[in-house]
């Protein structure tokens, strides 16, 4: 079961995402009628975002492909970002294959395939002289004292609680959900949630697991519609259910607005920080949030 840690640390702070994919140089040398082509591919995984992603999915059809897994209850679970905290990279589980699905060994000194991981920036860098796919695995730290598991309301969910069904989430949602104030822990604990910082604080006398529940905000006071720019500089925006983590966005303040049931403007305040939308309002309303791609 995937866990989200929540002891007044950056439980909710998403790592700002950016993507660097560089296909290096092709040199064609002609000599004595013999032609040789040398290809060098380079790709980086920056701030936890998988290379070769389109929207929220790894296309898997590039020259350099990286896949991230978390070990949950002994089994690998595919995720689309480097775990934010309380997980450690286990290099011994890394596996790489070439374009023909043949296992290859990296970091062997030949320079044919090399990768590295920066734990501070949560960044992978993978270089190869041939087409390659590498799988990287993260394991939960053994000394974690408090686990907070976030459940999101889902009509098709398999976990029932307080007359609703839920699905285990990867993280605290950026928008579209509100904390239900419902939680329970394996042992006695007091849990509080700061909606502005999106952080949980757990007061407990021992190691503990806590389970928190977020409900859809469709029946809440603020309904949020999010639109993301299709391409940089474009006037076309697409409505999304979740903010893509493969790109960086800024709030388009001139296009974003809030209005009441009669479409009259309201005084709602919209901010967008670290991948999260925050709306402050004193009345029921709907807010349209427009996000522009960063250059």
Q: Strand portion, in percent?
A: over 45%
Query: Mean pLDDT, nearest integer?
Result: 73
Classify the helix fraction into a percent range: under 10%
Distance between the termini: 37 Å
The shape is: globular
Beta strands, count = 26
In N-to-C order, the SSE pattern is EEEEEEEEEEEEEEEEEEEEEEEEEE
CA gyration radius, whole angstroms: 22 Å
Regions with little confidence, pLDDT below 50 for 5+ residues: 1-61
| Tally of DSSP helical segments | 0
Largest sheet: 6 strands, mixed
- Counting helices, strands and paired strands, the structural category is mainly beta
Count of domain modules: 3
Q: Mind explaining what this structure looks like?
A:
With 295 residues, the protein is mainly β. The chain folds into three domains: 121 residues, no CATH class; 74 residues, no CATH class; 72 residues, no CATH class. The chain is 0% helix and 53% strand. It has no helices and 26 strands. Strands 5, 6, 7, 8, 9 and 12 form a six-stranded mixed sheet that branches. It is globular. 26% of the residues are buried.
């Amino acid at each position: 079961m995937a866990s989200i840690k929540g002891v007044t640390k950056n439980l909710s702070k998403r790592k700002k995402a950016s993507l660097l994919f560089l296909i290096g140089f092709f040199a064609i040398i002609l000599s004595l009628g013999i032609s040789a082509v040398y290809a060098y591919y380079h790709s980086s995984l920056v701030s936890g975002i998988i290379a070769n992603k389109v929207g929220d999915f790894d296309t898997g059809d590039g020259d350099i492909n990286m896949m991230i897994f978390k070990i949950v209850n002994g089994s690998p679970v595919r995720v689309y970002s480097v775990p934010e905290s309380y997980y450690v990279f286990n290099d011994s589980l890394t596996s790489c294959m070439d374009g023909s699905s043949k296992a290859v060994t990296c970091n062997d000194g030949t320079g044919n395939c090399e990768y590295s991981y920066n734990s501070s920036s949560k960044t992978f860098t993978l270089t190869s002289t041939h087409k390659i796919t590498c799988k990287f695995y993260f394991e939960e730290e053994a000394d974690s004292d408090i686990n907070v598991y976030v459940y999101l309301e889902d009509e098709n969910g398999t976990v029932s609680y307080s007359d609703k069904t839920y699905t285990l989430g990867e993280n605290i949602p950026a928008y579209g959900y509100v904390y239900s104030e419902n939680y329970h822990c394996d042992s006695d604990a007091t849990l509080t949630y700061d909606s502005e910082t999106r952080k949980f604080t757990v007061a407990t006398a021992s190691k503990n697991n806590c389970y928190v529940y977020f409900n859809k905000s469709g029946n809440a006071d603020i309904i949020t519609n999010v639109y993301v720019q299709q391409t940089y500089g474009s006037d076309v925006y697409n409505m999304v259910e979740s903010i893509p983590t493969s790109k960086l966005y800024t709030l388009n303040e001139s296009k974003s607005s809030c209005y009441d049931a009669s479409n009259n403007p309201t005084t709602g305040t919209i901010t967008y920080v670290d991948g999260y939308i925050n709306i402050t309002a004193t009345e029921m309303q709907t807010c349209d949030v427009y996000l522009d791609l960063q250059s």
